[in-house]
User: Which sequence fits this backbone?
């Protein structure tokens, strides 16, 4: 399936209720002579607009799950549908397009490009979509304003605080208006005050209609979303929902 | 990602680590400069030799009287042969590969002018032989056909012969005694310069008189015929020198009654052939090899720098892929970075190489050495073709050197680089 077909299909399936659906997903890594079974038969469905946390100790497979959900790697077995599109049928360029247009990433280590200004960092996903420079900058500035960082647009990541860096990373994740926001330990490198600020931002994004999934090993953060998935040894241990 | 953005990224990469960039660029600049300089130098050397070998006449084919070789005659009968004006007339009538045939007679004689006396080489010449020599005049005129026909005692001097014999006082119309016979100076030749191929004194040191006068004044005492020292012809085509030689040999062997393949009886020489025997192509090949190897070292510099850069920027590449970059985008980004560095190094190399070639060709490096030495110092010849060769070699190298790191960058697994331990 080519990139444009993927895009058309994802547009056509906007009516699909589930944002994410996994069926019997396994992920195995070969490490040296042995093999690591990171995910063992995950079945999961997340509806559009849900706010979900995935919790688990280190090595439980939560990051692997996030990588698969984010189309950064493919399942070894099983199937994955993102907005109704069967990801295993999509070619590499199609996956890149999905990542750029449907998914927003927030990483624990921010992963901002140190040589670019915050504005340029935020504009990066638009660059790969072929958005003209002027529009790119306008939209990036809008996204920075959303996280109250427009005054830092010309600064480089090294010149701002950790909290500001993560806010810039969130702005970057938002700039393409993705329907699925994946956050991997978004507060992991921040103090609690800045951590709360970031969570408030993510909750705001959820309130605007996006599907938000937070991966964390911190129980206090994991307890905030209405739907909480616990994962251990590559399997879903519990999947609890509470009324919001 | 646009080309412009990739170039901007390449510039950032260069500025991020100035020392590493300097060392990488240095290899490229040096390689390109060496390529341009050595190729220009090789061209200049070729021209210098070409000129120095052909100062006695362009496409010259020359023959002197020989003797029958032992292969064809018993030792006692190995007689010397000689050429006469009739041989020249026969050649003029029969050769097709040469457009001019001329002859000279040669002797050494004492020359005197106002108390100044020196031994000089006197050549008996005619219009055809002068045309083959093709030496421009500094003043006056050359020996004319009338001079030859009427056996006029007129004289044309080589540039250095004029300085040594006439000094400051002598001018056109002055009378010079050769072997006691007065000759009137009618012309002075322009400076010819150092001859790498010559059949006696350099033209600058010669005195020219009409051939008829020479044959009358300095006859061979042993034979009863007019004896020429040399016959020469101008081949129409530089590439057909061998054919011109064969034709000359054919006619002369026929006239002398010697076997056609007796090279000792009719020795024929060509400066162009001698020049072509010099291993200039091998030398230029060697220059090219040295320059390309130097350039290759520069290319390895790009390769090392880019590989290093890919390794350092794994997280960045992972982030770019996560943000929607296709592998092709990453590949092109790194490829363009390599090319940008190559182009920058190549451009500086062109400047330095061309500058060096022009500087060495300029008068700055030519003052303080004699005119004769200067004739044999090559002037580097910079041409657009050479610059193009260097630029293309550079660009090709940059692409090849950038390709491996770019390929590696594009193969990076984003999930792996984004994982926090």
Assistant:
């Amino acid at each position: 399936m080519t990139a444009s077909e993927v895009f058309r299909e994802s547009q056509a399936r906007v009516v699909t209720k589930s944002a994410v659906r996994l069926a019997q997903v396994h992920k195995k890594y070969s490490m040296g002579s042995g093999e690591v079974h990171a995910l063992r038969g995950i079945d999961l469905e997340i509806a559009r607009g849900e706010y979900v946390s995935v919790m688990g100790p280190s090595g439980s497979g939560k990051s692997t799950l996030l990588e698969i959900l984010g189309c950064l790697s493919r399942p070894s077995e099983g199937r994955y549908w993102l907005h109704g599109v069967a990801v295993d049928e999509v070619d590499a360029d199609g996956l890149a397009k999905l990542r750029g247009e449907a998914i927003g990433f927030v990483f624990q280590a921010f992963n901002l490009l140190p040589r670019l200004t915050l504005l340029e960092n935020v504009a990066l996903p638009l660059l790969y979509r072929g958005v003209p420079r002027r529009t790119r900058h306008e939209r990036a500035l809008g996204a920075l304003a959303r996280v109250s960082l427009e005054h830092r647009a010309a600064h480089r990541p090294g010149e701002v605080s950790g909290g500001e860096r993560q806010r810039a990373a969130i702005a970057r994740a938002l700039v393409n208006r993705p329907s699925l926001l994946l956050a991997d330990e978004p507060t992991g490198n921040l103090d609690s005050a800045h951590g709360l600020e970031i969570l408030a931002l993510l909750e705001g994004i959820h309130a605007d209609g996006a599907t938000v999934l937070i991966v964390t090993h911190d129980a206090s953060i994991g307890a905030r979303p209405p739907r909480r998935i616990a994962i251990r040894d590559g399997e879903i241990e519990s999947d609890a929902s509470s009324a919001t | 990602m646009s080309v412009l953005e990739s170039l901007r990224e390449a510039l950032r990469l260069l500025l991020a680590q100035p020392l590493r960039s300097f060392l990488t660029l240095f290899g490229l600049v040096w390689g390109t400069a060496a390529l341009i300089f050595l190729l220009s130098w090789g061209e200049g050397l070729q021209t210098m030799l070409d000129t120095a070998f052909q100062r006695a006449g362009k496409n010259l084919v020359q023959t002197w009287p020989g003797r029958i070789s032992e292969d064809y005659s018993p030792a006692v009968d190995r007689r010397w042969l000689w050429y006469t004006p009739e041989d020249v007339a026969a050649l003029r009538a029969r050769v097709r590969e040469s457009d001019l045939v001329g002859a000279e007679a040669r002797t050494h004689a004492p020359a005197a002018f106002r108390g100044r006396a020196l031994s000089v080489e006197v050549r008996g010449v005619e219009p055809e032989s002068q045309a083959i020599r093709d030496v421009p005049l500094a003043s006056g005129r050359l020996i004319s056909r009338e001079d030859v026909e009427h056996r006029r005692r007129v004289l044309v001097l080589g540039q250095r012969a004029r300085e040594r014999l006439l000094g400051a006082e002598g001018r056109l119309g002055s009378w010079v005694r050769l072997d006691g016979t007065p000759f009137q100076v009618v012309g002075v030749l322009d400076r010819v310069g150092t001859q790498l191929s010559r059949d006696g004194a350099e033209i600058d040191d010669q005195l020219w008189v009409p051939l008829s006068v020479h044959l009358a004044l300095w006859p061979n005492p042993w034979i009863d015929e007019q004896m020429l020292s040399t016959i020469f012809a101008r081949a129409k085509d530089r590439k057909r020198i061998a054919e011109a030689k064969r034709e000359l040999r054919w006619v002369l062997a026929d006239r002398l009654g010697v076997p056609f393949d007796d090279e000792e009886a009719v020795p024929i020489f060509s400066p162009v052939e001698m020049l072509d025997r010099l291993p200039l192509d091998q030398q230029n090949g060697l220059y090219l090899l040295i320059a390309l190897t130097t350039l290759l070292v520069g290319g390895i510099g790009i390769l090392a720098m880019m590989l290093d850069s890919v390794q350092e920027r794994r997280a960045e590449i992972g982030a770019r892929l996560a943000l929607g970059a296709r592998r092709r985008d990453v590949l092109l980004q790194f490829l363009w970075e390599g090319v940008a560095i190559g182009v920058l190094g190549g451009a500086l190399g062109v400047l330095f190489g061309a500058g060096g070639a022009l500087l060495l060709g300029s008068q700055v490096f030519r003052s303080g050495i004699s005119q004769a030495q200067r004739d044999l110092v090559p002037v580097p010849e910079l041409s657009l073709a050479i610059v193009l060769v260097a630029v293309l070699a550079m660009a090709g190298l940059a692409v090849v050197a950038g390709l491996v790191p770019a390929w590696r960058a594009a193969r990076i697994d984003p999930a792996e680089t984004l994982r926090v331990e």
Notes: The mean pLDDT of chain B is 87. The first strand of chain B starts at residue 60 and ends at 63.
